[in-house]
Amino acid sequence: MFPSTALLSFAYLAVVYGQQAGTNTAETHPPLTWQKCTSANSCTSQSSSVVLDSNWRWTHAVGTYTNCYTGNTWNATVCKDGASCAANCALDGADYQGTYGITSSGNALTLKFVTNGQQKNIGSRVYLMAPGSQTNYQTFNMLNQEFTFDVDVSQLPCGLNGALYFSQMDADGGMARFPTNKAGAKYGTGYCDSQCPRDIKFIDGQANVAGWTPSSSDPNAGTGNTGMCYNAPQSPTILLQIWEANSISTAYTPHPCTVTSSTSCTGSSCSAPNSTAGVCDQAGCDFNSYRLGVTNFYGPGQTVNTNSKFTVVTQFVTSNNSTSGTLSAIRRLYVQNGKVIQNSMTNIAGVTATNEIDTNFCNQQKTAFGDSNTFSQKGGLAGVGSAFQKGMVLVLSIWDDHAAEMLWLDSTYPPSKTGPGAVRGTCAVTSGNPQDVENQSPNAQVIFSNIKVGPIGSTYSA
């Protein structure tokens, strides 16, 4: 729900839309295999890789070792304005393991939280590349399909989030639409999401220098005048959080947006959760078992036991059971120790008992929790489904939260709220302070593995 503002943590950071590609460090993507299925027990392996988001990369003046961005401020000499900064600066290749704590082995990807290399790095965000490609992201249309993966969250405590989600991004990272972008998907450019993050450094081919204000809580982040909601013309955009979780709580959440041609936002159009002013539904329609009244379903020793690895299956059901139909429901189930576990049923007054996200659930949930129904106002499930056909990029990340301390996932949020929907997990309202989390849980990590995509019913078995 709030994945963007807390993701900036390495000392040399930049998101790029009009930036050069550096050559000081070779860019070598960690390999990662996944499977494309056509029917049960009929899957073929895809040889892909992952690429680090440009947010985390060292950004320097072209042909030199001079930083364009240090800590949470711009280099005023090289970045006098947005256009000159984009022309003057390059982002460089990454030492995935040594600097960022990112490793892969076969079909498994490990993302470590704190890595102490030459500089201290916090968290990471990576994208799945197309098989055999170094320059294009893999894109997915999930209508009438299911997405399955294994995950180990046993080492993710309160205040952390090991997330897997889809974002509507250009497959080439924006190179075709912004010709001054010479880095592209090879260097992890082009990120956008429904939170309309204003901490993105380069937007629409220019640096986000105007109005840049360093963060008061994050020594490596800040915000500019412009936010980035969306990056795909002629279609509603979406952010689909398939998986946001630690060992205590989990939620899956679709977020529709209404824009069809603009790529940036300013002022009220960037919006805030539960606001009707912005172009995106930042709150989304979330399914969190604990928040929905079932407190013993997910967690250490619970029905889905987070002390060990398990499989997560998400199904995208359409009105006519075809890839051309309207998205009508998003279903969730789990597999652990050879047993299929159906998602928990809701147990909230005013919400008809269900274990899936559909339009009726979203409408009733918003009323029961006293939340604005921005999900419906921004297009609802139909809007989410219509955007799928443009193709979605797979994002995997680990992060802590400088904006809301992850309380929206695993604690009470807002902290003063009472009544239905306030409590989302057992974590204390004081548990998510990023400085505390980074100091107390530096060895935290998440492991994603065994990704499979195919028609409903084809990617898992008991």
What can you tell me about this protein's structure?
With 462 residues, the chain is mainly beta. The chain has one domain (20-455): 1,4-Beta-D-Glucan Cellobiohydrolase I, Chain A (Distorted Sandwich), CATH 2.70.100. The protein has 7 helices and 31 strands. It has helices at 82-88, 96-100, 359-369, 374-377, 380-388, 407-410, 434-440; strands at 20-21, 31-39, 42-52, 59-61, 69-70, 73-74, 89-91, 102-105, 108-112, 114-116, 120-122, 124-128, 139-140, 145-152, 160-167, 202-203, 206-207, 213-214, 222-223, 226-227, 238-245, 250-256, 265-266, 298-299, 304-305, 310-318, 327-336, 339-342, 356-357, 392-400, 445-455. It has a 16-stranded mixed β-sheet that branches. A 3-stranded mixed β-sheet has the order 1-7-4. The longest helix is centred in the C-terminal third of the chain and has 11 residues, at 359-369. Residues 1-18 form the signal peptide. It catalyses: Hydrolysis of (1->4)-beta-D-glucosidic linkages in cellulose and cellotetraose, releasing cellobiose from the non-reducing ends of the chains. InterPro entries: ConA-like_dom_sf, Glyco_hydro_7, Glyco_hydro_7_sf.
End-to-end Cα distance, whole Å, is 31 Å
Shape label? globular
Strand residue percentage: 25-35%
**CATH hierarchy: architecture:** Distorted Sandwich
Q: The biggest beta sheet, please?
A: 16 strands, mixed
CATH homologous superfamily caption: Glycoside hydrolase, family 7, domain
Helicity, as a percent range: 10-25%
Radius of gyration: 20 Å
Average pLDDT, to the nearest integer? Answer: 87
> What's the CATH first level?
Mainly Beta
Assembly of the depicted chains: single chain
What count of domains describes the coordinates? 1
Q: Do you know the CATH topology? A: 1,4-Beta-D-Glucan Cellobiohydrolase I, Chain A
Count of helices? 7
Task: Show unreliable segments.
Answer: 1-18, 231-237
Strand tally is 31
Structural class determined from secondary elements = mainly beta
